[in-house]
Design a protein that fits this description.
By secondary structure, the protein is an alpha/beta fold. The chain has 14 helices and 16 strands. It folds into 3 domains: 73 residues, Winged helix-like DNA-binding domain superfamily/Winged helix DNA-binding domain (Arc Repressor Mutant, subunit A, Orthogonal Bundle); 132 residues, Nucleotidyltransferase, domain 5; 162 residues, Nucleotidyltransferase, domain 5 (2-Layer Sandwich), CATH 3.30.420.40. It has a 5-stranded mixed β-sheet with strand order 6-5-4-7-11, with helices on both faces. Strands 14-13-12-15-16 form a 5-stranded mixed β-sheet. It is globular. The two termini are 24 Å apart.
């Protein structure tokens, strides 16, 4: 039997959904925009914008109000704003010495947030997942009237298989082949997608979407804490490798006579530039976590010679390793996150000197090295952006359908099944 398909109708629906996505993405990235600005940014006609905005307002995803007059002839274009509660995700961040959870809404607004420090060494999968579930309960309880999340994003300092959230290796957590994604799905009890990704990849995404790298299309994000990770954006798109294992720059060998790394290698870059090596050079406890780093930075600001010397040696190794990455990757912008962002003022000149010494002239002229603007929360912000991506790609799936006589929650469930 030959099926009959309404091809023009299908094309029209596809165009409508793509146009809704374009509008929502612009509002999510830029915040409130006038209808006129949306016409310019999307290339859609005024009448198309008017109709699509009407759908989004009825669906509870955006709001609209009159713009203030600016003294020019004609009626001011209405101002369209994303409604943060219209699409909410749960973001989770796993660090070696801290855990965080946040509820993040459309437009990137952090609605609730909590971070706790934790002792290193208590890092079993079960313990971390249970702690994350508790943090999720805390932020959810603060917003009891909020709509259920539409997704969960998780940042982890390890090598992640994106397909199912399996953490193949997280040396600084002591993990090998740990099913983080499935375990979280079981404990959280959510029926929404849970996406797990490497923290540096998510830090790169966050800085491009919300931070210092906004608008850049070739960036390298370097995140330093106990370990070191790299996130790469090429032509505006994230680079993950074949199975999501790319970006493990911390395990790039730089010193054949160096220390044994947690991964089993010798002289990995993170053994020279990570928090442990920095604290050891400064004569400080290597188990004190972020508090010890804060104290070291304060000592350096006060002119303590050993603290300054430790930072200088770390900066030298940062420049050596980064030179090789710039020669290979040719980024436009290098963004320092985490530990590197905090120590950037003390190592910037040394890093630049090493880059001048070791980097090829052509890529050196093109690249800038800057401190990130999102600090320690960059992976958490990136996890939220990752979880919001399916919604941004097709917001029509989340629109209310009043004619069905159903609540928004049941509409979401129905549409997911159909989709």
């Amino acid at each position: 039997m030959t099926s009959i398909r309404n091809e023009p109708g299908l094309r029209s629906e596809s165009v409508r959904r793509a146009n809704l996505s374009s509008i929502v993405r612009e509002l999510h990235a830029a915040g409130p925009l006038s209808r006129s600005a949306l016409v310019r940014r999307t290339g859609l006609t005024r009448s198309a914008i008017r109709g699509l905005i009407g759908e989004l307002v009825a669906g509870g995803l955006v709001s609209e109000r009159r713009s203030a007059g600016i003294g020019t002839p004609g009626r001011p274009s209405p101002l369209v704003s994303p409604v943060p509660d219209g699409a909410v995700v749960l973001a989770l961040d796993i660090e070696v010495d801290s855990l965080a959870a946040a509820l993040v809404g459309l437009g990137g607004e952090i609605l609730e947030h909590v971070r706790i420090d934790r002792e290193r060494g208590h890092s079993s999968l079960v313990a971390i997942v249970d702690d994350l579930a508790e943090l999720a309960s805390i932020v959810r309880a603060r917003r009891s009237a909020i709509l259920p999340e539409i997704g969960v994003g998780v940042a982890v300092p390890g090598v992640v298989r994106r397909a199912d959230g399996l953490v193949s290796m997280a040396p600084n957590l002591g993990w090998t082949d740990q099913p983080l994604g499935s375990r979280l799905a079981h404990v959280l009890g959510d029926e929404v997608p849970i996406t797990v990704a490497n923290e540096a990849d998510l830090g790169a995404l966050a800085e491009v979407r919300r931070g210092v790298a906004a608008g850049a299309d070739h960036i390298l994000f370097l995140s330093g804490e106990v370990g070191v990770g790299g996130g790469l954006i090429v032509d505006g798109l994230p680079f993950h490798g074949v199975a999501g294992y790319g970006g493990e720059v911390g395990h790039m060998p730089v010193n054949p006579r160096g220390e044994v790394c947690n991964c089993g290698g010798v002289g990995c870059w993170e053994t020279e530039v990570g928090a442990v090596s920095l604290l050891r050079r400064a004569g400080r406890s290597t188990s004190g976590g972020r508090a010890e780093i804060d104290a070291l930075v304060l000592d350096a600001a006060a002119g303590a010679p050993r603290a300054i010397a430790a930072l200088e040696e770390t900066g030298r190794w940062l420049g050596v390793g980064l030179s090789g990455l710039i020669n290979i990757l040719n980024p436009r912008l290098v963004v320092f996150g985490g530990l590197f962002q905090r120590i950037h003022p003390y190592v910037a000149a040394i890093v630049d000197a090493e880059l001048d010494r070791h980097t090829l002239r052509a890529p050196r002229r093109l690249v800038r090295v800057v401190a990130g603007s999102l600090g320690a929360e960059a992976p958490l912000v990136g996890a939220a952006e990752l979880a919001l991506e399916p919604f941004l790609g097709d917001p029509a799936l989340w629109l209310r359908q009043p004619e069905m006589g159903a609540s928004r929650n049941s509409t979401i469930a129905i549409r997911r099944v159909v989709a």
